[in-house]
Amino acid sequence: MNVYDFVSIQEGLLIIGVLLLVVEVVFFGFATFFLLFIGLSCLISGLLMSASIIPENTVSALSFVSIFSVIISLGLWKQLKKLQTSEGNNEIEVGLVGHKFQLTANLGPNKQLNYKYSGVDWIVKSSEEIGAGQTVKVIELEVGVLRVTKDNP
Question: What does the mean pLDDT of the chain come to?
């Protein structure tokens, strides 16, 4: 019994290409481009075999899928990398970054104070002089340390 009795090589490539693209989009959300490149190259190879442009055998299938994967990855790499990196203002509060609170004492480059938040004692540091009672905003986190700046409303 031969596998080609059920599915031809070009049909197999088309099925594998569609499955890889679905897995890439649904499960990984374009996080890995590698399945995208192989899926597209399987689709292209399967279509070219269906049109009898390339020979219908296993060696041709593997060769052309490899060649098309390299060509597609070189051609789309920069555009897809731009898609993953976001540009612009990313002032989204993540964890404590962006958290605002009022100081209970003066704070400066040579003076730090403690701040209890969510059951954890944090050391608060600043590179500028900030008076007691002023509202500050967390701009950076380190292990056990909150770096703050004056909050300008």
Answer: 86
